[in-house]
C-alpha cells in the first residue's frame, strides 16, 4: 500500500504542529520520521492513522483519499512507545484480540485464530510465553507482543511511534534488527517515529527529517548523513565541528587561517560556517600548508574508534576528531601534543541556510 501525504497542515490552537507536509511513501517501504521533540512526528503519524484530523491537506492510501475514513477502516496497525497491552489478558489473548472482535462475517474460526496467533508468537520468539500476563514479561518482550498484536489483523500499513523508546540500548538494538527482518519478510509499508538518529540510520530505507512541523530533508540514510541540506540536518544527524568565518575569493577565512572552498558560489565577504564531521578532520604532526594548529586536550578510546578532542588556541574553541585505532596508533598522539588539523570535507552554509 502506498501512502501519499499531500500538503498537510495542522494547528493546535495557535500552534502550528504541521506545516504543508508532503511526502510519498512507496508500497513496502520502511520510513523513519526523525526529528527533535515537538517537531511534529507523532502528529503526522496520528493524521495518517486517522486518530487526528488535519486542517488542510490529503492522505491517500493507494491513491484513495482516507480523509473521511475512520481509523478502523484504514487497515492500519499501531505500536506505541508504552506497550498498550491489555493487562488482564494473556499474551495469547492480547495477540488474538483484533481477530476475536471482528464482526462474525469476517471473524476467523477459533482454530484459525489459534494457528495465526501461535504463528505470530513463533515469529516474535514468544511461543512459550502465550499464557503469561504482560506484567510477567520484560519491556522488550512486551514490545514484541505489541508488534505481534499489530500484525495479527494483517494491516496494510504499520505505524510505530517510538516503539523501542522505553527500552535499554542493548534491547533496542536487538529489536530494531528484528523489526528490519520482520519488515523484509512481510513488506508492510511501515512508518516509525524516532528521535534517535542511530536507530533511523540503522533501520530505515528512507529518512524524513522533521523540524518545527516541516520536512527538512528526505533521503536514504547515507544521503541525509553524507549530504545534509541544512545546518539543522547536519547538527541533528551526528557530531559536527564548526569553522565560523567569512567567505572571500573562494576561501573560508576563520581566525588567522583559510580553507579553500572553490565550490561555494556566493558573494565575497559573506559570513559563513563550515561544517565538518569528526571523521573528516585530518590530523598532521607537522605544519603543512592550509592546516590549523591545535593541542590534543583529551583522548577517548571507544572500541575500534578513537575520539580526540582538540583545543584550537587561536579561537579558544574545541574540535572533535574521530580516528580509527590504526590511524591513532600511527600518529602516536598524547594529551598535550601540538598537532595540525585540516578538514578533508567541509560543507559551507551562509546565514540564509539557517532556518531558526
Ligand atoms: N493534542 C494536542 N494539543 C495541543 N498541542 C499538541 C497536541 N498534540 C501535539 N501538540 C503539540 O504539537 C507539537 C508537535 O507534537 P508532536 O507530538 O507531533 O511532536 P513529536 O515530534 O512527536 O515530539 P516527541 O518526540 O516529543 O513525541 C508539540 O509542541 C506538542 O506540544
CATH topology of the largest domain: Rossmann fold
Helical/strand content category? alpha+beta
Tell me the number of strands.
20
Distance between the termini: 36 Å
- Shape by Cα distribution: elongated
Question: What is the strand content?
Answer: 25-35%
Number of discrete domains: 2
> Looking across the biggest beta sheet, what order are the strands in?
6-7-8-3-9-10
Specify the biggest β-sheet.
Answer: 6 strands, mixed
Helix fraction, binned, reads 25-40%
Q: Order of helices and strands, N to C?
A: EEEHEEEHHHEHEHEEHHEEEEEEEEHEE
What would CATH call the class of the largest domain? Answer: Alpha Beta
Rg, alpha carbons: 25 Å
pLDDT < 50 stretches:
none
Look at the structure and give the mean pLDDT: 90
Number of helices: 9
Q: What is the architecture of the largest domain at the second tier of CATH?
A: 3-Layer(aba) Sandwich
Domain ABC transporter: 3-237
InterPro entries: AAA+_ATPase, ABC_SmlMolc_Importer, ABC_transporter-like_ATP-bd, ABC_transporter-like_CS, CysA_C, Mo/tungstate-bd_C_term_dom, P-loop_NTPase, Sulph_transpt1
GO molecular function, one term: ATP binding
Protein name: Sulfate/molybdate ABC transporter ATP-binding protein
Amino acid at each position: 500500500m502506498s501512502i501519499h501525504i499531500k500538503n498537510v497542515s495542522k494547528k493546535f490552537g495557535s500552534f502550528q504542529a504541521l506545516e504543508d507536509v508532503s511526502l510519498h511513501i512507496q508500497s513496502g517501504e520502511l520510513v523513519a520520521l526523525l526529528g527533535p521533540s515537538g517537531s511534529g512526528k507523532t502528529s503526522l503519524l496520528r493524521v495518517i492513522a486517522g486518530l487526528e484530523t488535519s486542517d488542510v491537506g490529503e492522505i491517500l492510501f493507494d491513491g484513495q483519499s482516507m480523509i473521511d475514513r475512520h481509523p478502523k477502516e484504514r487497515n492500519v496497525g499501531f505500536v506505541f512507545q508504552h506497550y498498550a497491552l491489555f493487562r488482564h489478558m494473556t499474551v495469547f489473548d492480547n495477540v488474538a484480540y483484533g481477530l476475536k472482535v471482528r464482526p462474525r462475517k469476517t471473524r476467523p474460526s477459533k482454530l484459525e485464530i489459534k494457528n495465526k496467533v501461535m504463528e505470530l508468537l513463533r515469529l516474535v520468539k514468544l511461543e512459550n510465553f502465550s499464557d503469561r500476563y504482560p506484567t510477567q514479561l520484560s519491556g522488550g518482550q512486551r514490545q514484541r507482543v505489541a508488534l505481534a498484536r499489530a500484525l495479527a489483523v494483517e494491516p496494510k500499513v504499520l505505524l510505530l511511534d517510538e516503539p523501542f523508546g522505553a527500552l535499554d540500548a542493548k534491547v533496542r538494538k536487538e529489536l530494531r534488527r528484528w523489526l528490519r527482518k520482520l519488515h523484509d519478510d512481510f513488506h508492510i509499508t511501515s512508518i516509525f517515529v524516532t528521535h534517535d538518529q542511530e536507530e533511523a540510520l540503522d533501520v530505515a530505507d528512507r529518512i524524513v527529517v522533521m523540524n518545527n512541523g516541516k520536512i527538512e530533508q528526505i533521503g536514504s540514510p547515507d544521503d541525509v548523513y553524507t549530504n545534509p541540506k541544512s545546518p539543522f540536518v547536519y547538527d541533528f544527524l551526528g557530531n559536527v565541528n564548526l569553522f565560523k568565518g567569512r567567505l572571500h575569493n573562494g576561501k573560508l577565512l576563520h581566525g588567522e587561517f583559510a580553507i579553500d572552498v572553490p565550490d561555494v558560489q556566493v558573494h565575497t565577504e559573506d559570513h559563513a560556517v563550515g561544517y565538518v564531521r569528526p571523521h573528516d578532520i585530518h590530523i598532521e604532526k607537522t605544519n603543512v600548508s592550509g592546516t590549523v594548529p591545535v593541542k590534543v586536550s583529551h583522548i577517548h578510546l571507544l572500541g575500534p574508534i578513537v575520539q580526540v578532542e582538540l583545543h584550537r588556541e587561536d579561537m579558544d574553541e574545541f574540535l572533535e576528531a574521530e580516528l580509527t585505532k590504526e590511524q591513532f596508533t600511527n600518529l602516536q598522539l598524547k594529551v598535550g601534543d601540538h598537532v595540525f588539523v585540516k578538514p578533508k570535507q567541509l560543507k559551507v552554509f551562509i546565514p540564509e541556510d539557517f532556518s531558526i
